[in-house]
Amino acid sequence: MKESHKTFDIAVFAGDGIGPEITPPCLEILKLACQKTGDVELNFIDVPAGAALYRDTGTSFPDESKRIAKDADAILLSCMGLPSVRYEDGTEVSPQIDLRMELGLYAGVRPVRLVPGLDLPLASEKAKDIDLVLIRESTEGLFASHGKGSVENDAIAKDTMVITRSVSERLFDFAFKLASHRKENGSEGKVTCVDKANVFQSFAFFRKVFDEQSKLAPSIIADHSYVDAMALNLVRHPWHFDVLVTENMFGDILSDLGAALMGGMGMAPSADIGDDHAVFQPCHGSAPDIVGEGKANPTAMFLSAAMMLDWLGQNHQMASLSLAANLIRDAVDNAFADGQLTPFELGGTAGTEAITSAVINQLKN
Ligand code: ATP
Q1: In this predicted model, what pLDDT tens digit does every residue of 1-52 receive, in sequence order?
Q2: Which distant-in-sequence residues (6+ apart) come within 8 Å of 185 by Cβ?
Q3: Residue from 26, 91, 98, 284 whose mutation best tests the ligand 1 pocket (most atoms within 8 A of CB)
Q4: d(CA 43, CA 171)
Q5: pTM > 0.85: yes or no
Q6: Superfamily assignment of 1-110+268-365 in CATH?
Q7: pLDDT 10s digits, 170-188
Q8: CATH says 120-262 is which class?
């Protein structure tokens, strides 16, 4: 049966730093992929928020922007924050964190997969087989203290970590379902809970809820690792892992390690998914050190956009969206495949324009 034509509203945060440089190419690629598969149109709505907006207007995340984001079918975000623009308490402006909290986007999904053609980050040939997904809880953990920490008498500073049963259960359920889905496509079917349960009550509780939840998914292997051992083993043998699930702060750190395994921040996509909303955003920040130089790698944002199409496709049961997502991933793989396109961050000379053109050429073929 032919799927009916449908228009989806996409709230687009071009953000700060390199955000406005990588966003237009990403929208072009999304449009092209959807045109090729037909049946779907994307209506992009430009939404202001971020550090530059705060500097210029005193507001980082206007109510109207929040409303547009909540009403949209999906949210696409580049990167936000500038080290030179800070709130009075010294923290960086980060509406993307507010968005995760407000929309309950508890599952931060960070796939770590190598794009063929790029130099392997590790010496072993097995590095070609790296294919894991890190799920970073994104609404609580140590980040529950965001904007609430305290400094007393310039002598003692405190931030409090929060782990709740309700978020943890949904997080682990998400992880086990993802592992089942990946198992159907040939992965091992394993979820590793990454914590520090040997030291902290909060992590012992996190692990206890994980063990309880694992009983509901008997066909998936439930494994554990302390975070320090995981940092070691993600470098020693990352190809041993399938799905990793962890607390917010640990996930923040390990996802940069994951990005390094992929060749750099510009290669690493992500999605922050809740029960009703989702934000798709590259793992990297606003990279102020390369703003205006044309060196920003837009690939992570392209791959995040592909994850958005996958999510929309699953939610609306529209195969053409998943097809468009695959078109983007294949175009990225093919653009890099012959080893000629090396991004600046990997020591090459390919910047935003060259990478965008190469991916567009592949999409057009
Ligand atoms: P945040 O705290 O907001 O995550 P960060 O301070 O960790 O940000 P990033 O902005 O992600 O840092 O940048 C880390 C390094 O990676 C910088 O040297 C930056 O130039 C580089 N980088 C980040 N994103 C890209 C990209 N898309 N293309 C090329 N280089 C990038």
Answers
A1: 345 669 999 999 999 999 999 999 999 999 999 999 988 999 999 999 999 9
A2: none
A3: 284
A4: 30
A5: yes
A6: Isopropylmalate Dehydrogenase (3.40.718.10)
A7: 999 999 999 999 999 999 9
A8: alpha beta
